[in-house]
Amino acid sequence: MVSALTQQAPAATEDIQPLCHIVTPVGCLGYGLDADITEEELIRLSTSPAPTAIILDSGSTDSGPARLALGKLGSPRSSYVRDLKKLLRLVHRYHVPLIFSSAGGDGSDEHVDEMVDVVQELVEGDGGGNRKTKVVAVHASISKPVIKKRLAEGKVKGCSFPVPPLTEVDVEDAPRIVAQMGAEAFLDVMRAEPDFNVIVGGRAYDPSPYVAYAAYHALGASTSRAPLHSLESGILGGFFHMGKIIECGAQCATPKTSPARSTIYADGSFDIIPLDPNAKCIPRSVAAHTMYEKSRPDLLLGPGGTLDLTKSTYEQLSDGRTVRARGSLFHSQLVGGSPYTVKLEAGRIRGYRTLAMGAFRDPVLTGQIDSFLSRVRDYVTYQHREYSEWWELDLHKFGAYNNGAPGEVWIVCEAIAQTQQLATSVASTARVACVHGPYPGQKATSGNFAFGMGGLSEIEMGPQPEFCVYHVMDLEAGEEGAIEKPEHGATPGRLFTYRKVTFGSQGLDDFTNLNGFAPDAESSNQNGTSKPKPKYSVTAGYVSVEDFQLPAQIRTLGDITPVLRSKNAGPYEITLDVMFPSEVVYRTVKDSGLLNADLIASLYSLKVEDVIYSGFFDQAIAFKATIPRMRNGKYAISGSFGEEDVHGSQMYLPLMNLELSAQLIEKLQATRAL
């Protein structure tokens, strides 16, 4: 069998004319970015006749429900100020539009408006130049009556089987509910306001603004009103595939890095290149990116349809750093006669939390830590037996605690209760039991527990957030678009609204229909010299996937894989990716029958029917499995009480440490000669 990765792609056509370029400085606004390397790319693109935009994501549910339930920003406000200051300078200097979505981390209306305020402060404040800047804010919050009506009509369902059915109580408990906007909402805004400088988008499907920008130009910019789904499946599939990859920046490069650029062509093919000169994209690293934090790598569900990558191909271009992808398809729900669907997200508050933490260092105690902690729980229960309010206690262990061997065990006492006062009482009582509880063989009778970090014995964490809405809702015809928010009344026929505002007064940058890209002379030449290169690279010293070699001694699955990782795929799922160094090693493992749903179920203490996905992905010479997030034998939600790994990024160890059979090791050793 020949994989899509190794198929002979169509002859390289590196001289074809691009439709547009997209630069993504970093995978998430607020995480920090390299403005110098981004500016260098904008200067280089200034000679291209194709329009260019800076587009990036700004949010996710990956870090838990606090943003939605408590209204917290995803990063400190100062981090958004820092990043937007750099980006706005590039917007004004190079006449290039800036688009970011899921503003503030969750894409709520409050955070969209907060980011608009940041833009205003930067434009009109000291050093901002008071440059005239048109900003369009796109809101993604959904009213509760709309959701409850659709729920009653049977038009709302969970995103996957671990997600419980939605109830009206779930809807009412949520302080805010957002929907992941599709590309149609952004496309409507670009057509209605083609002279925008900045689009601040609410919660959106990560590829949506990328798809919209490419589609805007493919459909004839502001002169066309053809719907998004009028594009051919192969063209739209390429746009979605491009957006799905580059929204993470250069995560798809080897080694992974931050800034990336994509060039998109009218036939739906596209190029991906990392901007860090020490990184490169190769076909299998790009193919593998659709495995990242997804339930499955080949069919990706999103608003309005499914991205189909089963026929995608990946071609290494002559520079050795750029990959061209083609052959992706998008199956539109509307074209297929089905309702357009969007994902709803919300969180709520469930009680209050308090933490107490510290370390055990006595090897006599760490060797019997489980029985000791059982007595701690019993003591806490006894001391709170007369309370009528509900409470729970979880004791998290970290460190070495095997058979009395020397080592330190770090304990986090996590208490949740109906009131903050009760939660603190539970955590404090657990700490006291950790400090003074007796145990067999005890010598250090003055105390067992090293605590007091930060000068506090207990840390009150306040309200405990949890996800309560993670469901898909059917839309009525046309609701997927966006319309300018009227001063009064409802917005007929549209689910999403936008508002526009202009800041500053010093000359509006002129880039009709998102074009007119022209650098200022001062930016590309200073006193006759080119702008200096960045002085550092975050990839320096890292080994490329291509350079991975099988070790002399092979024992575990981790020994033969350059990438073996885990990640959350939404709040209810954990996905596992195993990537192999070569086609021959991949085939050897695949043919052995080692990796399958039965093995995954055994490693993670699941029933086989609980394994959501298990399969090989030839395009990336990789294996993937997806499982429900579990805690204490039950389905769990990320960020809820008892959470230890909200990203799910440390769940790969059972696979990494999987011991290989002697027969398989012998076959793998034999691949060295091939």
From TrEMBL:
<dbReference type="InterPro" id="IPR010839">
    <property type="entry name" value="AtuA_N"/>
</dbReference>
<dbReference type="Pfam" id="PF07287">
    <property type="entry name" value="AtuA"/>
</dbReference>
<dbReference type="InterPro" id="IPR025496">
    <property type="entry name" value="DUF4387"/>
</dbReference>
<feature type="domain" description="Acyclic terpene utilisation N-terminal">
    <location>
        <begin position="80"/>
        <end position="436"/>
    </location>
</feature>
<protein>
    <recommendedName>
        <fullName>Caib baif family enzyme</fullName>
    </recommendedName>
</protein>
<dbReference type="Pfam" id="PF14330">
    <property type="entry name" value="DUF4387"/>
</dbReference>
<feature type="region of interest" description="Disordered">
    <location>
        <begin position="514"/>
        <end position="534"/>
    </location>
</feature>
<feature type="domain" description="DUF4387">
    <location>
        <begin position="557"/>
        <end position="659"/>
    </location>
</feature>
